[in-house]
Amino acid sequence: MGGSKKHVVTRTSSPSLAIVQANPHDNREVVPIEAPIISSYNDRIRPLLDTVDRLRNLNVMREGIQLPTIVVVGDQSSGKSSVLESLAGISLPRGQGICTRVPLVMRLQRSSSPVPEIWLEYSDKIVPTDEEHIAEAICAATDVIAGSGKGVSDAPLTLHVKKAGVPDLTMVDLPGITRVPVNGQPENIYEQISGMIMKYIEPQESIILNVLSATVDFTTCESIRM
């Protein structure tokens, strides 16, 4: 080609973009230049996510400044915990009745270290934990924030997870919608939870992850109505 240098962009079987440059000694051979999309994502998007998290720590949303947020909603026992566990690779509290009683802010960060780093942050406290005891630590922190009963609170509990294989995401898991108070729950439990959900999903910056049980009629789902 008149001695000019050629560049070819092609798709590969892997989820990345391969950029290849012609070998100056053999025009029929190409030498790959690695430029995976994931590397570009980490270099360009991770700093933005960190900035949003720092702004969230400063409680700028209380001043009316809205931040992009993935909000996880669904009816009680709709399977939210299973979805989040598959994303984060950790175990979350399970059981009968309402398990999530406060907004659980899950900050997932991919790490190259083989040893996971997990800690909780709430009420100006930092509580280290590990994968084996994370569910118990979340329950204990929830009791401190919302009381040891069955009530709910809109004060957030932040869970930091740095481990290999997790996506770089920040999500807010909200209490599941319950219509009838049981087992000592306050009489206005539905109003408390629905008000909390609406506060998080109303901003245009919110991305709503609505988890539905496959056994529930789509048209009667309360979270869809909201």
Automatic annotation (TrEMBL):
<dbReference type="InterPro" id="IPR022812">
    <property type="entry name" value="Dynamin"/>
</dbReference>
<dbReference type="GO" id="GO:0005525">
    <property type="term" value="F:GTP binding"/>
</dbReference>
<dbReference type="InterPro" id="IPR027417">
    <property type="entry name" value="P-loop_NTPase"/>
</dbReference>
<feature type="domain" description="Dynamin-type G">
    <location>
        <begin position="64"/>
        <end position="226"/>
    </location>
</feature>
<dbReference type="GO" id="GO:0003924">
    <property type="term" value="F:GTPase activity"/>
</dbReference>
<dbReference type="GO" id="GO:0005737">
    <property type="term" value="C:cytoplasm"/>
</dbReference>
<dbReference type="InterPro" id="IPR045063">
    <property type="entry name" value="Dynamin_N"/>
</dbReference>
<protein>
    <recommendedName>
        <fullName>Dynamin-type G domain-containing protein</fullName>
    </recommendedName>
</protein>
<dbReference type="Pfam" id="PF00350">
    <property type="entry name" value="Dynamin_N"/>
</dbReference>
<dbReference type="InterPro" id="IPR001401">
    <property type="entry name" value="Dynamin_GTPase"/>
</dbReference>
<dbReference type="InterPro" id="IPR030381">
    <property type="entry name" value="G_DYNAMIN_dom"/>
</dbReference>
